[in-house]
Amino acid sequence: MSVALDPALIEAVTRFAALPRVLVALDFDGTLAPEVDVPDEARALPEAHEAIRDLAAAPNTVVALVSGRSLDSLARAGRVPSSVPLVGSHGLEVRLAVDDVRPAATPADRARVDALRAVIAPLVEMVDGAWIERKPAGFAVHTRTVDPPSARALTETVREAARRADPDLTVRDGKNLIEFAVRDATKGDGLAVLREEFRPDAVLFAGDDVTDEDALAMLTHDDLGIKVGAAPTVASHRVSDPQGMSDVLRLLASLRAEPAQGGSAHP
Ligand SMILES: [Mg+2]
Question: Which residues constitute the signal peptide according to the record (predicted)?
Answer without folding.
Answer: none
